[in-house]
Amino acid sequence: MSLLGIDLGGTKVAFAIFSKEGELLQKDTYLLGKRRGNAVGNLMTETTAALIDSQKSAGDPVESIGVSVPGISHSKTGTVWAPNIKGWEDYPLLEELLKVASFIPVKIDSDRACSILGELWQGNARGCLDAIFLTVGTGIGAGILANGEILRGNMDIAGAIGWMGFSRPYQEKYSACGCFEYYASGAGIARNAEIYRGLDKDYRGELSAIETGSMSAQDVFAAYDNGDKVAIKTVSQCIGYWGMAAANLVSLFNPEKIIFGGGIFGPATRFLPEIKSEAEKWGQPVSMKHVSFETSALLGDAAVFGAGCLALRNAKDKRYPPGRVSLAGK
Amino acid sequence: MSLLGIDLGGTKVAFAIFSKEGELLQKDTYLLGKRRGNAVGNLMTETTAALIDSQKSAGDPVESIGVSVPGISHSKTGTVWAPNIKGWEDYPLLEELLKVASFIPVKIDSDRACSILGELWQGNARGCLDAIFLTVGTGIGAGILANGEILRGNMDIAGAIGWMGFSRPYQEKYSACGCFEYYASGAGIARNAEIYRGLDKDYRGELSAIETGSMSAQDVFAAYDNGDKVAIKTVSQCIGYWGMAAANLVSLFNPEKIIFGGGIFGPATRFLPEIKSEAEKWGQPVSMKHVSFETSALLGDAAVFGAGCLALRNAKDKRYPPGRVSLAGK
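^ Those are the sequences you sent over. The predicted structure of the assembly is below.
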C-alpha cells in the first residue's frame, strides 16, 4: 500500500508516491503553464486518477491522498483559496478529488502546514511535538506544530506571520502584505536594497547597474558575497528582523525547533548563527536556551513530503475512515 | 460532588468550591503575609485537607482539585517555579498536595493557562476553541487556547508574550522582562510617564508632584481622566503597543477572541475600541475581521475559576484516573 502526496505551487504541481515508511518512490512534476481555474483542477484530478490506476496495476495501490495548497485550505468546506492561481478564490478541490479517489481518503492542507509536517515525518523536526517551519520566500509564513498537532486557528489561517508588526508607527505600505513580509521576504530584500542604493549618493557598486524594479534577492546575495556595502546593509537589516521574529515565535510557542525554509534559506542559511544571536537578545531566556534553529532538511520537497504525511495521518485516523469523508452541505 | 479550585498569587491564596456546573459555592482568601517556601505549601495543604474534610461532612465531597500558580507549572515533574514566592524555585507542590488529597486527583497549571480556562468555563470564552487571555498587570502574559487545548510548549513556558520584541534596535533595558512588558505593563506605564514628564521641561501637571520612582499606573490613569498631557501621551503610546501586540496574536493564532485582563483592564477597558482600531492596521485582514476583543468577565476571579475548570477537566480525563497520577522519578 502506498501514499500519494500532491504539492500544488503557484507555477507547478508535483505528484509523489511514498511508502508508508516515508520513502519517496516516485515524483512527477508538471508546469501549470497557462492553466487557470478548472484547468488546474483537471490536471490534478486526471493525474491523480492515472496514478491510482498505475499503482493498482503495479500491485501497490494508493491507500490515502494528501494535498498541499499555496494558500488557505478551508477544512470545513474542502475548498481552497490560492491567490496565485486565477479562479481559485474558493475552489472545490476536495469535492473534485473525491470524484476520482472514490473510497480513498483525501486530506488537504496549506503549504505552511505541510512544510512542518514534512519535516516532522522525514526531516529535521522528527520526534518533535512543538516545532515551527518559518518559510521565507516571495512571501513569509509559518507552519506551527504545537503539542503534536498543526495549529489551524478558527478559520484555518493561523501562522500568518508575514503580518507581524514591529516597526511603529504603522505605514500604509505594509497594507498589502504585512510589516514583517514587507521588510524581510525575498521581495522585501530586493526592495530594501533599491532603497538603500538610492539613499547612498556615492554608491557605485554592482547593484547600481540593475534597473529600478528589477532587483532580486539573488542579486543582493551575490553582491553580498563580493563585499558590496548596500548588500551588506540590506542583509544585516534582514538578519535583525528574522532574529526578532524568530524570538517572538520562541517566546509565544516555546518550541523545540525553528526550521527556516523557503527560497531565501537557501542563500541565507549561512546567517543562521547570527540570526540565533539576534534572537537571543529578545526572546524568553529559558525558552531561547532550549530551542534549536535549523534549516529545512527537505528544501523544496518539504511540502510534498508533508502532503505524504497528511495522507499517512489521515489513513491512520479512525475518525475519518474511507467513505466517511463528508462535504459540508452534502 | 464538588470541585476545589485553588488560586495562588504572589500575596494571597484563594480556595473556592465549585459545583460541576461551574457555580461558585464558597470562596476563602488567605493573605500569605510573611510566609515563604514550605510555609506557603503548608498553608495550601492544611487548608486543602480541611476543605476535603468539611465537604465530606457536608455530603458534597471534593471530586477533583485544580491549582493555579503564578509562574511555571512543570507538567512532567509536578514542581512549580514562582518568582514572587521565596523558596519556590522548584517547589514540589503536586507531591505535597497529593499527600493530603489521597485518591482525589490534583492538576496544577500556570495562572496564564488558568485565566483562559476560567473564561472558557464561565466567562467570555464560553464555546470557543481558539481564544487568548492577555493579562496586563505588573507583568504581561498570555494564556492561549488553540483547538480547545491549552498551548504549553516544550517546557510549559508558552505564552511569554511579555518578551515580544518590536522596538529595534535592541536595548539592554529590555533584558529583565522583555520589550513588550518593558513598555506596556503596569510598571511600564508608570516608567514611561516618568520619562515623558522628564522630557517636557514646561510640564507642571499633576504627575510632576509624584516622587521619582513612585509613580503608579493608577496615577497615570487618574491624570488621564483630568486631561493631563503626559498621561495622554503615555496612554496613547500604550494603546499603540497593545494594539500591535494583539494584532500579532491574531495573525499567528487566528483566534475567535482576545480577552484582555489583569490589573490594567481594569482602567484601560475603556480603550478597547482604540486598541482594536490600532490592531486592524497591522493584523492579517481576514483574521482581524473575525476576531472580537473583549475584557474578562471574571476579572480577579478568572484564575480561580480556571483552577476549578482544570479540576473538572482532570476529573473527566480518563487518561489520568484517580490514583494513577504519577510523579517523575517515583
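The CA atoms of residues 134 and 142 of chain A lie 5 Å apart. Residues 2-113+302-316 of chain A form a domain with the Nucleotidyltransferase; domain 5 fold (CATH 3.30.420.40).

Shout if you want it in another format.
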